[in-house]
Write a structure and sequence with these properties.
- By secondary structure, this protein is mostly helical.
- It is 48% helix and 4% strand.
- It is extended and about 55 Å long.
- The protein folds into 3 domains: 50 residues, no CATH class; 58 residues, no CATH class; 33 residues, no CATH class.
- The protein has 8 helices and 2 strands.
């Protein structure tokens, strides 16, 4: 933003988009100088992923601990400052554990459990500190969307 003027940016919060897709899209079209009247919102295809939770949360946590190395390997290309790919070996036993776990502890479409208040308070504190100047930078009130009571 030091090189490109702020008026050349148009920021959208996902939460605003979900709440009022039409207004957000009209704002994008206006920013781009495109006519919105020819756009048919009903033709826009949207999809979502329903929340799923494992049958047993405890079993899922055990599996996560066992497969931490494998997960790290899967996402290795997307991370920075990780060991060389050759340093992490692919273990057949871990693959079998993962497969068995998916059979024994399938995910079901249901509402996830409520977050503990201590966890919410910690995350609100941490991210409000980290993102403290974001609202002013992008001209959007992120606090009202992201940091809930």
């Amino acid at each position: 933003m030091k090189i490109i003027p702020q008026e050349n940016f148009h920021f959208i919060l996902f939460e605003e988009f979900v709440q009022n897709m039409r207004n957000v899209l009209e704002g994008v079209f206006q920013f781009l100088g495109i006519s919105y009247k020819n756009f048919n919102l009903s033709e826009m295809k949207t999809h979502y992923h329903a929340a799923t939770t494992p049958k047993s949360l405890t079993l899922q946590l055990w599996r996560n601990q066992l497969l931490r190395l494998r997960a790290r390997r899967v996402y290795l290309d997307h991370l920075i400052d990780v060991p060389n790919r050759t340093e992490i070996t692919d273990n057949m036993i871990l693959r079998i554990i993962d497969l068995l776990h998916r059979i024994i502890n399938p995910h079901k479409e249901k509402k996830p459990p409520n977050m503990k208040m201590e966890t919410r308070m910690f995350l609100n504190y941490y991210f409000s500190r980290e993102n403290g100047s974001l609202s002013g930078l992008i001209g959007k009130d992120v606090e009202s969307f992201w940091y809930l009571d």
